Amino acid sequence: MSTAGRILVVEDSDTERRAITQILKSEGFSVFAAEDAEKALSYADEGIDLVISDVRLGEVSGMDLLTLWKRRQPATQMILLTGYSSVNAAVDAMKAGAYDYLTKPINPDELVLIVRRAIETLHKENEIDDLRRRLDQRFGLERIIGQSRPMKEVFARIQRAAPVDSTVLILGESGTGKELVAQALHHNSHRKKGPFVAVNIAAVPSTLVESELFGHVRGAFTGATDRRMGRFEQADGGTLFIDEVGDFELSLQAKLLRVLETLTLTPVGGHEDLKVNVRVVAATSRDLDDMVRKGTFREDLYYRLHVVSVLLPPLRQRTDDIPILVEHFLKEIAETKHTAKHRVSPEVMRAFVNFPWPGNVRELRNALESMMVLADGEVLTEADLPDKILNGSVSKSGQVDIPDMPLEVLERLAIMQSLEKSGNNRTHAAQRLQISVRTLQRKLKEYEAQNLIPASNDDILAEA
């Protein structure tokens, strides 16, 4: 069968139908023929790429056929054939979804040219649709791996927040996958066909942050030889992901707040305001509540960013997900890094589950990649484990390594981990922590009031 395209010719004149069919077959197309709309519709499920139809077919016209066919196969291209007296009808058909029209008598060269263009357009549209599907798979929820209860809550929150244009603040330690969440929010929103632009404030020199976000005009500063578009303009019509927003200098926070509130910006050195249509998703691994209390982060900006929040749990609070993350990374690394396929021994899996992973999911993936590159056999054993993981992060002095973070954050992590290990039973969690149930309840209420955890209910946080 020809790969040039499958074409259906619909023409009630036997002579013209045979002539068109012969021209197209000589060009290598697979051609089918029908004398009326009813016969034509019997081909609707036969993988037809292009329908060439006369406008005048009898009781069911070419216009009617266009409507009926598009209902069943909207992607199929259609070219209408018409006499000079019916050109207006053909133009109307193009407005209704036809690709083009030809006037009779048909010029063979013109026919072949338009047919090739229609087939090429169809193939390009199919490629674009395929790319979009692959992008959805790459950046959608499927890329965020997890089946634990904390991750199910994250998924539910993403699905509720994605369709709405509200600003989202993603909270979590470094390496928990905040950019993946931002991509999922974008690709599950009505902005998915627009750009997704990411900027990491921590990676931009403080003197260039304003220009990076808002752009600059020529001559704005030494070295500004041309007009430069900022990230907000680049993301127009789509989503701007501002990572590590907690690193934003206090002197510039008022300018960011103005843009978020008005969607209007002024490039560095410029005098004219520019309107942008952007949804902002921000993320931070820092404790913004503490920064607000200390006066290093504006309270009004915090509340403007914190319209909707998504809290990503650290890997040590979702150990049930480690086995499926390992399987996912083993496959991904083998495919992308061209390494041999591997599997892990039960001893290695136990070590992974027991390790606290201060670097979270990113650290797990990097550890696996290192082990796969250096391993001798296809099974990763304890001999392949980095010393840090093999020793369970216990130092030579016998002291357990504690992550470097504020005490109140460590306290919250300890409480949430105890609840997770206790099946979200408050009484059992309080016993683990050696505190009273009343103290635990008070802490949880404080976290809920600060939107650090989802609101509780009797099913989620039940007492014994």
From TrEMBL:
On this chain, the residues bearing 4-aspartylphosphate are 54
Q: Where is the Sigma-54 factor interaction domain?
A: 144-373
Keywords assigned by UniProt, alphabetized: ATP-binding, DNA-binding, Nucleotide-binding, Phosphoprotein, Transcription, Transcription regulation
PROSITE patterns in alphabetical order: RESPONSE_REGULATORY (PS50110), SIGMA54_INTERACT_1 (PS00675), SIGMA54_INTERACT_2 (PS00676), SIGMA54_INTERACT_3 (PS00688), SIGMA54_INTERACT_4 (PS50045)
The Gene Ontology terms for molecular function here are:
ATP binding; sequence-specific DNA binding
Response regulatory domain residues are 6-119
- Organism superkingdom: Bacteria
Keyword ATP-binding among UniProt keywords: yes
Instruction: Please identify the protein, giving its name as recorded.
Output: Sigma-54-dependent Fis family transcriptional regulator
From what organism does this protein derive? Humisphaera borealis
